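Weekly structure sync, notes
Attendees: PL (lead), two postdocs, one rotation student
Agenda item 3: pending single-chain targets
PL asked that the sequence for the first pending target be pasted directly into the notes so everyone works from the same version. It is reproduced below exactly as submitted, 211 residues in total.
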Amino acid sequence: MNLHVLPAGLIQTNAYLLTAPELGEAVLIDAPGDVWAEVAPILEKEKCRLTGLWITHGHWDHMQGAAEVVAATGAKVLAHADDRPLLETPELMERLMRERLDLKPVHVDRWVAQGDTIAALGAQAEVRHVPGHCPGSVLFHFASLGAAFVGDALFKGSVGRTDLPGGNFAELERSIRGQIFTLPGPTVVFPGHGPQTTVEHERAHNPYVSD
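Predicted structure, written out during the meeting:
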C-alpha cells in the first residue's frame, strides 16, 4: 500500500490518498478544496480506482472538494452522523465563516460509528469516535500499518481548536486520552494539518494532554 500526503485548499489541509496498485483500488481520507487535481494523476499513474472517500469530520476545509471527487469517481463517502448537518447543509459553515466558500452538500453513503470496522485495500480500518473539536470527529486506525488518521483531534504538539460551535475541550481531552493515547505507542499519527507524529511522542510531550 502506498501513502500520498496531499496538503490542499485555502489553509493547506492534509488529505491522505492510500493506494493499492496490486488491487487497483484507492481510498482518500478527507477532501480539501482542489484536491482532485492532485489525486487524479496519482490514480492514473498507479492504475487505481478511487473506491472510498472517508471524512474525518465535517468542517469546511475537510469537505470542500468532496463533491468534485465523488462526481469524478463515484467513490462511496463515509462519515459520522453527528456531523450530518455540516455535510448536508454546508451553508451553516458559510454563515459561521461569514464568507462564501463555494461549498456543495455531500451525500454520505455510510454513517460510521465507534468500533466499526471497514475493509479496504486488503486491510482493516477501525473507526474511533473522537469528538471535542467537532461533534462527528472520527479517526481511522489501520493496525496492520501502524497508522491512525485523526483529522483535527490531535496535532504534533497541539490539539484541535474547541472554540467553534460543537467544540468542547474537556470532551476533546477525553477523546484523545481514551481513543488516541490507547493506541499502541509506535502508531504514526497523521493529522489534518501539519506533520505526522506518534502516539508515544504526544503522550509524553504534548503540552495540552501529555501524561
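Discussion points:
- The mean pLDDT is 94.
- The chain has one domain: 2-205.
Action: rotation student to compare against the earlier draft before next sync.
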